[in-house]
Structure formats: structure tokens, C-alpha cells
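Researcher: Go.
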Amino acid sequence: MKYKDLKKKPWFKFMSNKYVLLLTVFLIWMLFLDSNSWLIHRELNQEIDEVEANKLYYQNEIKKDRQILKELEDSIEIERFARETYFMKRPHEDIYIIEYEDSLNTDKDE
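Model: Structure:
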């Protein structure tokens, strides 16, 4: 196909229009090459979504911790928490920790 034949095609006339060419270059520049490009905005939006998910997670953790602190206002609850979490004991008292086989961390699980 010769250049003269291409000039007669309607799509070639449209694409060779200087405004269409300028608009095409502008769109490529704005979508991919500019510092505020669409690609950068997409990455930033993904980061925003991750941060918002983290925010929700930590807000839920704060609610759980506040509930635990409210429960620990009682001295009996403080003692129970210390015994269960930190394996604390009273003087002259023995504590036996029983671990079941399915709760042990073995090399086979990893």
C-alpha cells in the first residue's frame, strides 16, 4: 500500500489531524510520564487502602485492649490475667504447664 492510498483512508485523515496528534501526545504524557500520572495515583490509592485497613485493625485492637483494661480494674481479674499470661504464682505454689501435642511448634509444621 502506497502513501497516496493511505492518505485517502478516513482513519488516516483523522489520525493525522494535528489536534488529534496533540491530544494523543498529551494523554500519553498525563497517563504515564507525568509526576502526577495515573500510574502514580493508582499506587497511592493502593497505599491508602492498605493504611485504612491497618487503621481499622488497630482500632479494633484498641477496643479489645480497653475491654481488657476495664476487666482488670478488679484485683481478682488482675491475678487471673497474671497467672494465665505471665505464669505468675503465689509463694509456695507450684505451676504445671500442660502442652498438648497439637499445640507444640515442631519443625514438621513449618
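Model: The chain has one domain: 10-100.
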